[in-house]
Amino acid sequence: MTNAAGVATFTYSVPVVPSSLGLDTITASVTLANPTGATDTEQVTKSWVDTTPPVVSCTPTTNPSGNNVPPAGNNPKSGQNPDGFYVLTATDAVDPNPQITVADTGSSFVAGPYSSGTKIKLTQAPGAKPNAKPGPGVIDWHITLKGDAAVTATDGSGNSATVSCLVPPPPK
């Protein structure tokens, strides 16, 4: 039905889920309310794309013994979490499971992919070979890097976001 100005409106929406991405074809037909009853049909397409990057974080967490997170203190060399226990999280508007990777800023090493909620022990050891191995207890992975950690979340559409995750190198 049209309004007094002869304009018809409608609303078309899709759920915000990966399966909704892609191309939709929308067809509208109009039949004139006069003796001829002429019909006009028009088709348009709508491309549904995901352009929003995930939200990623590297949040200090308790160590396996249950001790609280130590404060970083006033020394900038102490990093954001001196004992290096973190939980990696990522959320996305469309993809329910964005993938998380941990890249070493001091080499080409990349660990992962990990799912949101993964707990890590992060160690910065400039002279060591970067690696990731299963962690102790509730810690999923122990990651050793030469430099700092660049934590990246990537959704199924290829959108990504990166945050830094810092710990101090061991004392000499």
Commentary on this structure:
The chain has 172 residues and is mainly beta. The protein has a domain at 55-165. Helices cover 0% and strands 42% of the residues. It has strands at residues 22-31, 39-48, 55-60, 85-91, 99-104, 110-114, 118-124, 131-134, 141-145, 149-154, 160-165. Strand 5 and strand 6 (110-114) form a beta hairpin. The protein starts with 21 loop residues before the first strand and ends in a 7-residue tail after the last strand. Mean pLDDT is 86; it is low at 75-79.
Overall mean confidence score, pLDDT: 86
The first-to-last residue Cα distance is 79 Å
The count of strands amounts to 11
The run of helices and strands is EEEEEEEEEEE
How are the elements arranged and paired?
Elements: E1 22-31, E2 39-48, E3 55-60, E4 85-91, E5 99-104, E6 110-114, E7 118-124, E8 131-134, E9 141-145, E10 149-154, E11 160-165
Parallel strand pairs: 7-9
Antiparallel strand pairs: 1-2, 3-4, 4-7, 5-6, 5-10, 8-9, 10-11
